Amino acid sequence: AGIKLTAEEVVTYIKTRTDNENKERRMYWDRIPGEEIGRLLKMAAEELGLPASMLKTEHLTRPLELLGGKTLGGLFEHHYLYRDRQEQDTITSVLERAGIQITSNDVIECIKSGHQVYWRRVPWEIIGEVLQKVADEVGVPLPFMDERYLTHPLALLKGHTLGGIRHLMTREGAGGMSSLTEKVGRSITAED
Questions:
Q1: What is the Cα–Cα distance from 160 to 113, expressed in whole angstroms?
Q2: Running DSSP on this structure, what letter comes out for residue 83?
Q3: Is 22 helix (H, G, I), strand (E, B) or coil?
Q4: Distance between CA atoms of 98 and 48, rounded to whole angstroms?
Q5: pLDDT per residue as tens digits for the range 132-183
């Protein structure tokens, strides 16, 4: 076993690098344990006011006070260049390595705080959990909900809506709420 690098040490290293040095490019991201990258991302997300699982590319390339005005762009670039070329986007690769998973509470907190959710990254199961919480709030069984509930301001979301799911439905070819509830595994079957 070697020396374990911590998130705090990474922050200090990034903060103290001068502009004349090659900044984050010389950071050896592959030598930092995934759980420490997770801690680093959680620190950055806290500064930005959103859950770590809701971080997007723009957040990693934004100057952060935490890092003395520097960014986590090198982490993004490292994963862009060296990730498995599956059908996975770069930010998903970063979060996966960090052990950060999206939860329905993360989605709700992100919306409540006024941030936009990148719905294509949210697993269908989690979308189903969010929709179920909305159904519970409006007092309608999820399979009986229609699209108006996606654009209706909700107390659960501090007056925000789930309008982004409508765009996802269009993009994914889901032909309405019945298709959506089927995709999330919450439809009524003939046996019900």
A1: 9
A2: S
A3: coil
A4: 18
A5: 999 999 999 988 888 888 888 999 999 999 988 877 777 766 566 767 777 7
